[in-house]
Amino acid sequence: MIATEPLATAVLLATFGALLAISVLFSRASERFAVPIALIFLGIGMLAGSEGIGGIEFDDYGAAFRLGTVALVLILFDGGLNTPLDQVRQVARPAALLATAGVVGTAGLVAAAAFMLGFPWPHAFLLGAIVSSTDAASVFAVLRGSGIHLKRRVGATLEVESGFNDPMAVILTVALTENILQPGSALGWRLPLNALVEMAVGGAMGLVVGHGGRALLTRFRFAAGGLYPAMTLALAFLAFGVPTLLHGSGFLAVYVAAVVLGNGALPYRAGLLRVHDALAWLSQIAMFLVLGLLVFPSRVIEVVGVGLALALLLGIIARPVVVALCLAPFRYAGREVAYVGWVGLRGAVPIILATFPVLARAPGAERIFDVVFFIVVVNAILPGATVPWVTRRLGLGSHEPPAPQAVLEIESRQPLEGELMSFHIDEALAVTGVPMSELPFPEGSAATLIIRGKEMLAPKGNTTLLAGDHVYVFTRPEDRPLIQLMFGRPESD
Amino acid sequence: MLLSELLSPVRVKVPLGSRTKTDVLRELVNLVANPGDSANGMAILASVNERERVLSTGIGGGIAIPHGKTPLADQLVLAAGVSPTGVDFDALDGKPVHLFFLLVGPESASGAHVKALGRISRLLRRESLRAELIASLSPESFLRVIRAAEAS
Predict the structure, then answer these.
(1) How many domains does chain B have?
(2) % residues pLDDT > 70 (chain A)
(3) Which residues contact A220 (CB under 8 A, 6 or more apart)?
(4) If one looks up domain A419-487 in CATH, what number appears?
(5) CATH number of the domain bearing residue B32
(6) ipTM value
(7) Which residues on B lie below 8 Å from A486 (Cβ)?
(8) What own/partner pairs with CB < 8 Å and gap ≥ 24 does A452-458 have?
(9) pTM above 0.95, yes or no
(10) Of A77, A123, A225, A268, which sits most exposed with the smallest number of CB within 10 A?
(11) For residue A464, what is the DSSP state?
């Protein structure tokens, strides 16, 4: 390895640049094979690694953990920014139950199976805890690739659950790792009490950062528009760092802060969201590349039997059973329960959590890492690749209109009253074939632009909306129900 | 055009018997379809389902206004129903729907069709009116409430 600067940095940048470019180029392969896109990045990382064609030596679990944590913070923050508050409210109770009791239940069932497969109890519990959190982003990525939109409540449940369950999995993993180092430390009432404190502190700090951040962004005027995303990035890091130092759950705080920020008026909103979307993608690629580099495929092969057994148990028995129990008190249709149970895909969180016991030098931790890695990969393929099929089969997909040719957004430093929404004009809508002058727009709402194929049209009184058009409607929040009754689903949702 | 003129006691059902979205749509369509003409009912139901496929017409506040356009409808007709227990209609606010208005008409009446949608949604903005409609015990009292609201 070249150790002198600036060559070392040049080698690092050239390598990372090449891997990043390859990952972006191959991203559409996930649509073709209907596997979570993360698996593609992970595969590229493995190929580039010490046992692949790239031959890059990398076994720094510490660096992987740090990078993974930063990446998760950015991904959770982006997820929170894009989660509508009414969606959180709508599914708060089932999602909260899934994210707490559900995580513990899944961890318990996997632990029991791991014990039967020969792991001692402390290791079995740790393994269960590590694989217990879900990743909704993989589900949505797979669905988006196949052009399906998920029914509102089912999608919301999966999404909010995955935003809330990482904290619980982190708390359990940390406690159970300590339990291996100091046997008995996680027993009794301490674990649930700690979890409660972490959640409370994390949730409260998230609200503080979210509301404080919004005040900061709207009251102060920064020197340039580009400084606004710098401030939101700072808020994301603060939301993780400060609560973690105060024994709160940083991941919960990040998600909560982002939901608060995303649901209020923000200066340069569209631009901010785009920056965080890009950061989340970059994080996702970097994280999976590094995790792919970190793993030794030859060691993972040794745990194929155990890994496969646990992955199947997790996907086919543990998750569906736990979900059915957690959702029983709420009004979910049977097929919705089955769906949420089946598509509880695992993402990067388990792999990053699995580096934690390795870093803590817990005995047997490397074997756990290998098993976890295998479970996540199998899980991405088995329930993962069936997601589009199952969605259609259970009739939980909703109609997805084609994307518009052009996107119009309002950018403003000052938060504005009212919003600009775009709609795809479907044959079945009431407005199709009706001249503008006859549409009952509420006072203060109007169609502002029609995009028909490659043409932009100004909506005049005698302009008639045709199926296939995209129309931009300006409206006030209180008139949204009527606008959506007339025009259907906004394309930005 | 007044809603009370589009409605009639035989096209108002209080209470609705259905518990699911599929059933309640069928129950409402039965109120407007030509009796004994199953093709007519099927076409209306299909057009209404087409629209629900785009986005639920459960616009929140316990209201749903399913609607559809089909050549088999010979004029614009409105039906209504009340479900005191509520139906999970995949509404935009996720809440159960209590108050249903079904609007069906031919393509040729699409202007009047969309105007009627606007009228219904504007009228139902008043929460007291919604509560009064949900509390009504017969089609006649339901219509009386609508008539009084439109007169004021």
Answers:
(1) 1
(2) 94
(3) none
(4) 3.30.70.1450
(5) 3.40.930.10
(6) 0.94
(7) 114, 117-118
(8) A453/A405, A454/A405, A456/A406
(9) no
(10) A225
(11) B
